[in-house]
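Protein of interest.
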Amino acid sequence: PYYVAIVGIGVQALLLVIRLYFAKRDAGISIWGFIKGVAVPCLFVGGVAIIVPFATSCDASSFLWLLIIVSVDVLYIALVVWFLGLSNSERKAIISSIKGKLINKT
């Protein structure tokens, strides 16, 4: 299973390079702009977001402990994405979308 995962990651990386080539050729998208604007921030947020789940990855002694660990990990990742991964305009768009859905239900 380990080598299957490594090969899968390699294949996906190669496919990303191919997609970027076609995006540049067909749509004129800047590869460097994509790396700076998308890839680096995603890697940064992913790197920060993995810290707590990695630190709490232990053998849960009970189902309740498992639920606590998973809940803390999900909350932590959501907060990291909210504060580090989203711009102010993206946060505002999400909040207005949620408010719109809540207002329409009442």
About this structure: Residues 75 and 100 are 23 Å apart (CA to CA). Helices lie at 2-27, 31-49, 51-55, 63-85, 88-105. The chain is about 85% helix and 0% strand.
